[in-house]
């Protein structure tokens, strides 16, 4: 007996079930295809989180990563970046300039004992011509000036290449006794008294020539002259050259030879220069005698 054909309604139902059965596997294959398409389009990042996997576990090739340089791994925590404060530049401290020492003020006693100490010194004669003139040096007692030191300085003054001895105007020799003339250095009051014996008024300021030699005012020896453009040590050359000039026979004083010219050693420069330049020597550097008009 042949099988009965299924009713039309039942056949329709079975046909739909078979149709659903064939479509089922199609739905299950859809997700893998979608993943592969996503990877192909550069969606590796989505697959990295799919089912807990990393990008390196994916079966599909991932895009080549940009090469980076990895920093060395340390156990220490990475410090937070901080803004470095600029370090102060090292500077070398400039030494403070030392204050210039205040020059010691030279004080000159107005008067002294009135007695003198003779320098116990002697030397060879200096000079190349003329008669020999022996001299001794005395310094008033009680003042801060060495007789020996003063004698040595006067000896150097007379031997200077611009002085009298170097130009045939006389020969001079330092001795301690049997002198032809004496050079005394005295306080202003004592100098005034010695000069007054010759009828000269030195006003406590000036030097003079006496019958037995030269009197040098200690004030001028130590301080120089307010009209002289030079140190006191240079002015001492003028004192000796002027007074010894009288000793060798130059009796008269000279005046200024002209504005801007050097004053003669035989000019009383302390009384004014009258346009001349102060000068301590009888001769200039070329050996020419510095002269001027006779005034007294």
UniProtKB/TrEMBL annotation:
<feature type="region of interest" description="Disordered">
    <location>
        <begin position="56"/>
        <end position="129"/>
    </location>
</feature>
<feature type="region of interest" description="Disordered">
    <location>
        <begin position="1"/>
        <end position="27"/>
    </location>
</feature>
<dbReference type="Pfam" id="PF11350">
    <property type="entry name" value="DUF3152"/>
</dbReference>
<dbReference type="InterPro" id="IPR022603">
    <property type="entry name" value="DUF3152"/>
</dbReference>
<feature type="compositionally biased region" description="Polar residues">
    <location>
        <begin position="110"/>
        <end position="121"/>
    </location>
</feature>
<protein>
    <recommendedName>
        <fullName>DUF3152 domain-containing protein</fullName>
    </recommendedName>
</protein>
<feature type="compositionally biased region" description="Basic residues">
    <location>
        <begin position="13"/>
        <end position="26"/>
    </location>
</feature>
<feature type="domain" description="DUF3152">
    <location>
        <begin position="104"/>
        <end position="277"/>
    </location>
</feature>
<feature type="compositionally biased region" description="Low complexity">
    <location>
        <begin position="57"/>
        <end position="94"/>
    </location>
</feature>
């Amino acid at each position: 007996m042949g099988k009965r054909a299924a009713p039309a309604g039942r056949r329709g139902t079975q046909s739909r079930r078979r149709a659903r059965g064939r479509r089922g596997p199609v739905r299950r294959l859809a997700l893998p295809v979608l993943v592969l398409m996503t990877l192909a389009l550069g969606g590796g990042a989505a697959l990295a989180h799919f089912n807990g996997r990393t990008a390196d576990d994916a079966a599909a090739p991932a895009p080549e990563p940009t090469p980076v340089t990895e920093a060395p791994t340390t156990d220490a925590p990475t410090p937070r970046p901080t803004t470095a404060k600029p370090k102060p530049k090292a500077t070398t401290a400039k030494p403070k300039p030392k204050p210039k020492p205040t020059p010691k003020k030279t004080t000159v006693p107005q008067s002294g004992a009135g007695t003198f100490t003779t320098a116990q010194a002697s030397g060879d004669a200096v000079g190349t011509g003329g008669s020999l003139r022996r001299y001794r040096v005395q310094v008033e007692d009680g003042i801060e000036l060495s007789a020996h030191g003063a004698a040595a300085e006067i000896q150097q003054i007379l031997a200077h290449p611009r002085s009298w001895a170097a130009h045939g105007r006389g020969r001079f020799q330092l001795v301690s006794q049997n002198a032809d003339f004496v050079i005394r250095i005295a306080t202003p009051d004592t100098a005034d008294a010695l000069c007054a014996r010759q009828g000269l008024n030195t006003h406590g300021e000036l030097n003079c020539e006496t019958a037995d030699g030269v009197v040098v005012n200690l004030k001028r020896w130590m301080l120089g002259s307010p009209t002289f453009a030079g140190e006191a040590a240079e002015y001492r050359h003028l004192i000796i050259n002027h007074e010894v000039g009288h000793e060798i026979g130059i009796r008269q004083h000279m005046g200024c030879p002209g504005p801007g010219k050097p004053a003669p050693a035989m000019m009383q420069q302390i009384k004014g220069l009258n346009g001349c330049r102060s000068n301590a020597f009888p001769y200039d550097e070329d050996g020419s005698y510095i002269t001027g008009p006779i005034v007294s």
